[in-house]
Amino acid sequence: MSIRRPIVAATLALATLSGAAYAGDAVPNEAHSLDLGTVSGVAYYTVEPEGYRVVATLAENADGTPLRVTSVLAPGQSVTFSTPRAAGIDPVEVEITREADILRVRDTATLTN
User: Fold this and answer.
1) Rounded to two decimals, what is the model's pTM?
2) H helices within 1-113, ranges in order?
3) How confident is the model at residue 23 (pLDDT cuts 50, 70, 90)?
4) What domain range includes position 22?
5) What is the residue range of the signal peptide feature (predicted)?
6) Nearest CA-CA partner of 40 in 4, 13, 70
7) Greatest C-alpha distance within the chain
């Protein structure tokens, strides 16, 4: 058994424990679940001199290869994670935005409704 499976399992377990993925303000160093349909995971951020470092770990399922994405956000910047769906259907998206000293996590579908 590779080390990857326990890491993905722990990541997905944290995603389940940390609650709703689509709305709310994030807290530094606290996991926030992300649900992109067939892909899920967690994101957290740390406050650093150059900005808020957002780290997201995503996987298709417990057996999928995890993908880690890191981005440093200044005020007014955002990062979007998305998974495609069938032709003609909008992708599933989660947007993480830094607004001054607040980091917001939301489903971009709720921004257009």
Assistant:
1) 0.73
2) 4-17, 109-112
3) low
4) 4-112
5) 1-23
6) 13
7) 45
Pairing of strands 67-73, 102-107: unpaired
CA–CA separation, 36 and 39 (whole Å):
5
Distance of alpha carbon 39 from alpha carbon 50, whole angstroms = 29
Query: Residue 11 and residue 30: Cα distance in Å, rounded?
Result: 13
* Per-residue model confidence as pLDDT tens digits over 28-44: 999 999 999 889 999 99
CA distances from 99 to 4, 79, 104 (A): 34, 12, 7
Question: Which residue is associated with the tokens 């649900």?
Answer: 35
Question: How large is the C-alpha radius of gyration of the chain?
Answer: 14
Q: How far is residue 51 from each of residues 8, 48, 64, measured CA to CA in Å?
A: 27, 5, 31
